[in-house]
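Lab meeting, item 3. Inverse folding demo.
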């Protein structure tokens, strides 16, 4: 398995841990507001890190770091993901996986092998608005919808720490969407709303954030469904 980027030290990507973040390339979504344009659209052109190089770095840092976040792209597209995680776990690291939830069979396998300590699943939007937010056709979404439903259920019943999260975009998310999301992931342990921020690496520029007051109104709307709803990264 090839890595397409490495953040050597972070306090943000894995809550409660001094961690490194490994980036995988390629994704089966093409969210227009995604900040990892190169990883999604042209991973072959990105700087790569071999598995041996990665493991050597992590071995040297195991007295400093205590967690590893694996993100993307979409990590669960790689059949050898369990093998990589096993090698990292053998060094004593805690593992956080970021996923879009489209591969519940891989997620289940990782749980069964006790390879995960924390899972963060992106909830792109309400199911009614998912295809445009994920940048896929309605036909593709229809084929993936059962997988998303299965992943949410699996994560909520796994017994492993987790969060759901949504990057909130003014042009894509409404109050009605969040009401439907709340009904979908009812009783979730934690749900974070992250405000959209523009950057040169966005796949499709031109989107905007909601105001802080509007974001807070979404939090209030969600509270009857999910007790722990918070804004993340909002000043």
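The presenter then showed the designed sequence:
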């Amino acid at each position: 398995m090839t890595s397409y980027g490495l953040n050597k030290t972070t306090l943000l990507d894995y809550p409660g841990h001094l961690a490194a973040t490994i980036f995988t390339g390629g994704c089966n979504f093409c969210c227009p507001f995604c900040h990892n344009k190169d990883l999604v659209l042209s991973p072959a052109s990105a700087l790569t890190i071999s598995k041996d190089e990665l493991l050597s770095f992590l071995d040297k840092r195991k007295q400093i770091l205590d967690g590893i976040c694996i993100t993307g792209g979409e990590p669960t597209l790689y059949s050898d993901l369990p093998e990589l995680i096993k090698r990292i776990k053998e060094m004593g690291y805690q593992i956080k996986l970021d996923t879009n939830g489209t591969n519940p069979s891989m997620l289940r396998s990782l749980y069964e092998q006790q390879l995960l300590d924390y899972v963060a699943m992106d909830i792109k939007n309400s199911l009614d608005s998912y295809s445009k937010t994920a940048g896929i056709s309605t036909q593709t979404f229809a084929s993936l919808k059962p997988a998303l439903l299965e992943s949410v259920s699996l994560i909520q019943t796994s017994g492993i720490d987790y969060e759901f999260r949504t990057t909130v975009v003014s042009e894509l998310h409404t109050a009605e969407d969040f009401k439907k999301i709340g009904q979908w992931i009812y009783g979730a342990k934690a749900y974070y709303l992250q405000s959209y921020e523009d950057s040169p690496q966005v796949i499709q520029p031109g989107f905007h954030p909601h105001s802080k007051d509007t974001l807070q109104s979404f939090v209030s709307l969600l509270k009857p469904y999910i007790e722990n709803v918070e804004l993340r990264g909002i000043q």
